[in-house]
Amino acid sequence: MSKWDRIVIITCITCLLSGCFDKTELEQQAFVIAVGIDQTDLQGQYNITFQVAQGQLGRGANESSEIQEKNVTIQASDIISAKSTANTLVAREINLDQTKVLIISEELARSGELINVLQATTRAAAFRRGVQIIITRENASDFLANNDPPLEIKPHKFYQLMLQQSKSTGLIPDADIHRFFQITEGDADLFLGIYATATKLEDQKKGEEDEFYAGQVPQKGEQDTQFIGSAVFKEGKMIDTLTGEETRLALMLDNTISMDDILVSLPDPKSDVHRISARLIRERKASIHVKMDGQNQAEINVNVPIHIELLAVPSLVDYGSDAANLQLLEEMIEEKYNQEALALIKKTQETYRAEPFYWSLYVRRYFKTISDYEEADWNNNIYPNANVKVSFDMEAIRFGKVIRNTGIAEVRD
């Protein structure tokens, strides 16, 4: 081996050994779990709140009751500059790698300035595109201060588990930052953000469990935080809210969202008092066909195949072995979802003049260029005037572990 070969090898090894020169120890970092953004009286300035996890706590049995997070609020023009300013107040380096949620006040969301303040998240490598967007009735800082889950002392686990459980019922949408910019920049569809509040409203109403907005669900207990429904965004600005039921329907009509089994509550066609708990399964995506004529008049035909697994029938009506009852249940479920879906579509056509189902993907093939598509104007021209037909197709009803319910007559014989 020549002298120069040795020099090259030694130089390469030296470069490899220098890979950790810029490392930062864990104990030197402050991990941000949630970021909240509120409006201020100054134009272009926002109150940005960092909820910082205190990782050194919770190691011993005596430390579990201590506060697991601290909130730091900074006035700045964007999240990145606020992070830099926060480092003048917090001894540890602010780290956004583990941020789970981005909490936006409804006031800011409706102002139309949200897209301005969120632009920094697209450029910052530390801010993940999978961070979920949550819109709150109150200020984001108040939400972070009042959110005190009694069963979970680790705030990052609370957000993770709460969003996971709410999605299992279909009552909130999948609302990450990537999807927000994808839909907003596409300028053809509506974005649905998660709607939440940590303040219980006085005008709580009676109704089924999926017919509420956040803050309206009747409850008793110490925890007032509720995640239900969605905030509707058009062109980056919040324009309305949807109930949990409407949100669930929107997810079922959107093929771009991976939809797992969801828990639902259905009317019992044989009882005016009881309801049926079931698992709704969409094993295949909805069939969506769009036809266009020469005048840009569209006809949209949507077929949603669903399976239902009965989990609880409190009325004890026999739906497993009685063919007439089973047919009645099937017809009721199909009619229920058909009517509710058509009502939601009518609302989007007449009120929003845009749709949250990402149906614009199916009409673009009728246009040769992007300019032709934009000139046709899907939002304000094609979709509001489209003839939409929706049908839910009940493919199967399953009965869980048992087919036959307990016979009340036999029990009380």
Automatic annotation (TrEMBL):
The keyword Cell inner membrane does not apply. Keywords: Germination, Lipoprotein, Membrane, Palmitate, Signal. InterPro entries: GerAC_N (IPR057336), Spore_GerAC-like (IPR008844), Spore_GerAC-like_C (IPR046953), Spore_GerAC_C_sf (IPR038501). One of its GO terms (cellular component) is membrane. Its main location: membrane. It is a lipid-anchor. Residues 22-193 form the Spore germination protein N-terminal domain. PROSITE patterns: PROKAR_LIPOPROTEIN. It holds the Pfam family Spore_GerAC_N. GO terms for biological process: spore germination. The keyword Signal applies. It is found in: Membrane. It comes from the Bacteria. Residues 229-400 form the Spore germination GerAC-like C-terminal domain. PANTHER family: SPORE GERMINATION PROTEIN B3 (PTHR35789:SF1). Belongs to the GerABKC lipoprotein family. This is Ger(X)C family spore germination protein.
